[in-house]
Amino acid sequence: MIDIHHHLLWDQDDGSNSLELSLEMAQIAADDGITHIACTPHSNSYYDYNPDVVSAKIAELQQHLHRENIPITLGRGCDFHTSYDNIRQAHEDPIRFSLNSGSYLLVEIPDQPLPPSLDEVFYEMQLDGLVPILTHPERNLSLQKDLSRLKAWLRGGVLVQVTAGSVTGRMGKTAQRIAYELLSKRWVHFLATDAHNTTSRPPRMREAMELVAEKYGSDYAHLLCVSNPLAAFTNKPLQPQMEALGLYEDETVSRTWWQRLFGR
Q1: Better pLDDT: 261 or 225
Q2: How far apart are CA 197 and CA 6, in angstroms?
Q3: How much is the pLDDT for 253?
Q4: Could you give the 3-state DSSP secondary structure of residue 158?
Q5: What's the CATH number for 2-262?
Q6: DSSP letters of 106-130?
């Protein structure tokens, strides 16, 4: 399994607070069957994201993993929050925050209210060559009440990542219910741990992958936990996806300017 959303690096945000904890988290991930981890510190009003510092810490941690015989390959990414400064910097330097300096970008949006400008933000990211991956929409308070914005973003080419802990119920009943709704519609492209520690937010995906396989099929589970995240990690196009259900059912009634532009 490949984990593209993981707060593994110490002293970068509210994730790991020590090298020792980072190594412990990596060992748990490896024992669970995770082979690749994208280290994705927050970039928001509380935490500054410095690509050079992040890359240096990743290199240091990778050396420690080799010494400890922990079979994890690390990569660099960012838990990108849609602040004005972040959006401007991503426009000026599209690979500053992206997964391994490729096209895929993890994007976290505010809980509430959802800014009307998000449609344009996602559209402009794609014009800049980025593929936005919306992180944990099942945990977003606004989207929990109304998925219509998410539906429009999916039509426009935005991809979706759901937290493994939401699937297993660790993130609460509402997040679990929305996760299952999204999964049943095939609106999800990635599962990831969004791990922050070894207790409340542990780096485990196996149980969630098995639940998805049981409820929605092993092929879909493999797409979400192996094929799609590996493509994002290595900056390759996603293979053909399973058909999304109900995404275009009202397309003949109303088509936004964004959908018309993309021919969707």
Answers
A1: 225
A2: 10
A3: 42
A4: coil
A5: 3.20.20.140
A6: EEE--SSSPPTTHHHHHHHHHHTT-
Separation CA 239–CA 232 (nearest Å): 11
CA dihedral 184, 188, 194, 200 (to 10 degrees): -10
Q: Where are the domains of the chain?
A: 2-262
Given a contact cutoff of 8 angstroms between Cβ atoms, the answer to whether 191 and 33 are in contact is: no
Question: Which candidate, 144, 121, 128, 148, places its Cα nearest to that of 258?
Answer: 121
Question: Does the pLDDT of residue 208 top 80, yes or no?
Answer: yes
pLDDT band at 254 (very low <50, low <70, confident <90, very high): very low
Statement: residue 154 has pLDDT above 80: yes
CA distance 5 to 217: 23
Which residue type is seen at 82? T
Q: What are phi and psi of 204, to 5 degrees?
A: -125, 140
Of the pLDDT bands very low, low, confident and very high (cuts 50, 70, 90), residue 258 is low
Per-position b or e across 21-41, b if 16+ CB within 10 A of its CB: bbbbbbbbbbebebebbbbbb
Asked whether 146 and 173 are in contact (CB, 8 A), the reply is no
Residues near 102 by beta carbon (within 8 Å), at least 6 away in sequence:
95, 232, 234, 235
pLDDT band at 264 (very low <50, low <70, confident <90, very high): very low
194 dihedral zone (left: phi>0; alpha: psi -120 to 50; beta): left
Distance CA 193, CA 171 (A): 11
CA–CA dist 213, 210 (Å, integer): 5
